[in-house]
Write a structure and sequence with these properties.
The complex is a heterodimer of chains A (about 350) and B (about 450). Chain A contains eleven helices and 13 strands. With about 350 residues, chain A is an alpha/beta fold. Chain A has one domain: Luciferase-like domain (TIM Barrel, Alpha-Beta Barrel), CATH 3.20.20.30. In chain A, the strands form three sheets. Chain A has an eight-stranded parallel barrel with strand order 1-2-3-4-9-10-11-13, surrounded by seven helices. A two-stranded antiparallel sheet of chain A has the order 5-6. A two-stranded antiparallel ribbon of chain A has the order 7-8. Chain A starts with a strand and ends in a 15-residue tail after the last helix. Chain B has 14 helices and 16 strands. In chain B, the strands form four sheets. In chain B, strands 1-2-5-6-11-12-13-16 form an eight-stranded parallel β-barrel, surrounded by seven helices. In chain B, strands 4-3-14 form a three-stranded antiparallel β-sheet. Chain B is globular and about 80 Å long. The chains are: A alpha/beta (about 350), B alpha/beta (about 450). Chains A and B meet through α1, α3, α4, α5 and β6 of A and β4, α2, α3, β7 and β8 of B. The complex binds flavin mononucleotide (FMN). Flavin mononucleotide binds next to β5, α6 and β12 of chain B.
Chain lengths: ~350, ~450
Amino acid sequence: MSFLITSIEIDGAGGHPAAWRGSEVDPSAILTGELALRAVQRAEAAGVDLATFADALEAPADVPERVSARLDALGLAARIAPATERIGLVPTITVTHTEPFHVQASVATLDWVSAGRAGWLVDVSSSAEAAAVIGRRSPAVDAETWREARYVVDVSRRLWDSWEDDAIIRDAPSGRFVDRERIHYVDFESPSFAVKGPSIVPRPPQGHPVTALRVSSEDALQAAGDVDLVLLPGASDVEARVAAVRAAGGGRVLLSVSVLLEEDGASGVRRAEGMDHVGGVARLAELIEEWAALGIDGVHLRPASLELDVPVIADALLPLLRERKLVGAARPGSLRSRLGLSRPANRYEGSRR
Amino acid sequence: MSKQIHLAAHFPGVNNTTVWSDPESRSQIDFASFRNLAETAERGTFDFFFLAEGLRLREVKGRIHDLDVVGRPESLTVLSALAAVTTHLGLAATVNSTFNEPYELAKRLATLDHVSGGRAAWNVVTSWDAFTGENFRRGGYLDKADRYVRAEESLRIVRSLWDAWRDDDLVLDQAAGVFAREGAGAFADDGDHFTIRGRFGLPRSPQGHPVVIQAGDSDQGRDFAAAGADVIFSRHGAFEAGQTFYKDVKSRLPRHGRAEDSLKIMPAVTVVVADTDAEALDKAHHIREQQVSGPTAIVLAELLWGRDLSSYDPDGPLPADDPVVGSSVTQGRVGYNDPAPIVAEWRAQAAANGWSLRQTVINQQNRQTFVGSPTTVAEAMNHHVQENAADGFVLVPHLTPGGLDDFVDRVVPLLRERGVFRTEYESTTLRDHLGLRR
Ligand SMILES: Cc1cc2nc3c(=O)[nH]c(=O)nc-3n(C[C@H](O)[C@H](O)[C@H](O)COP(=O)(O)O)c2cc1C
């Protein structure tokens, strides 16, 4: 069996609604990005392969006792990129209302600023709230937004290929900075949008940054075959759901579970309700081993509290998983190579006019 | 006290200013290049670091223009990353108002302001054309006349979103369990271009509003700037043109109830420094020759003449044809509204000096603003500012990323000695560097 992929989710002060109230948390550090930075650096030092960043087009719900503010995930990931060296950075990006051309350019740029560690967690916006903040289109049903998301993924990959890797030639004798025969119009058309291309950003270091999505509905499952990485939320019914993703042709499959790694939290504000795993790391390591036997490629841990749980993941869980030979030594290189994915060939290579 | 000079660093890019063939020229994309130039600017206590934007690769006669730098990373993402490796430098992103939605702009810019501790700026540009539009959902998009209507509405809404939280809406009372005051962030707007409502998810940012920069040159563009911008990035770097522009724009401010110093005028300028004035002139001439190769001279002439001139010899005489107005021979760059008088001037100068086409372009399009010894440059810059040809400058180096080293090492100390430029940062926000109110 190959080693498991490990990842964590960055979301406010953590996945638990009361995480921001702990005495160990400086809640203002949520908005400066410091809390996220510290968590990602801790995870990186422990050898965690990647971090995802939660986001949505609409703001978090306005409930006084909850974190009702959120930084743009892509901006936050970019802020963290130069302050880290090895860990993959995968912001959530919603694609229903945002221009596909901007989306692909931003993700390609994250790959450039992180030297090949970028991915994106594709999500859709089917809520009326999301439609209303943009005000351009009516809300669409889930199935339609996922169908369109697949077109966005497709055009993004085409735009990433629109520059061949060696398009920049800097040929002083002929005065040409690029060989324009190696830069391509994508001329993409879908039922709801068209993009001419080429991208404004040269092909990113990984060729294609890692494309991920969360399978939380039948419609999302339909899109799983288009992506490199699938997150499967929840600890139940693992075998059947992994099989369904495999049948859909999905890439790496990570089980995405919320974890609270000690029962009586120091802060006293933490409650177990709604968590997939509550308890110590020994039990979690056992569970991970069981899930591994059911066919997952790795785990996506959603810590209840970044300040409390990430250090436990880093200092206790990862060493334990390594001891059990579930996780190998920290791997260098691009995010794709950490995930065991090859660098995609460029579809336009050799198609020179 | 003398007027204080404001300085910004432009990361050089897709214009022929950039001499990519120079052995000192490094990558235009690698983060190391951005970081290096930003660190130089911060060492020089500059106000901000500036990134331009282009949403479609330029074309000449239907083919991608290949003689200048092509391609660049997306501004806001690069600047968010630079926030990690700088501490005081302002971070200015050029982002188009036609091909973006106000809610997304507000969110991304406010994020940059939060993660940088109050150093974000937005240069609002207004390309509206169908050529660029082909990369976007609506294609085509706007009539030229609508570009500032949408820009004004976008800016108004973006600012209202930045204000959607009051300063004290973020409560952060851990014991009581109150993160924010209920109702914080609610917004609704019905305009000609947008009908939007909802809740904005970011509290007021460290600067209140990120700094707003404007770069259009038309009458409408100047009014837009006078009504709502904090900084104008202009193309009028020459002394007299600068004074004329300065007077024109500042005279528009009272109509909008604004004080003279609430809008800073910062033209794009280039600087060539050497030990002596004579050496600097030589160096400047050498740079000009590298910037305008034969093929580049033809392309720049095509932009002016609005027609295919590929059969002309750059080392021969100027084209005899009349210019075409409003042609699309070159796409994705600002053309000439009225080329005829410029062509006439070029012809007169070429005849008087015996210049070839290439020599004419080299001399007539020379935008080298400050050339000389460090003392000459420092004094000329200070003169421009004290005499109201500018409030400061956006420096456009011809090399990436080392193009500002000479300026920062040799000219900045002289400006400091003269008491017209800061010796250290006095604050951490861009608004404070620029002397603007929160
Ligand atoms: C100094 C200067 C820099 C500019 N930089 C950009 C740029 O980076 N990206 C862009 O799309 N437009 C840029 N523009 C174009 C203007 O923002 C504007 O869209 C264009 O000039 C048309 O507006 P106008 O008719 O008011 O001039 C620039 C203009 C000036 C004067």
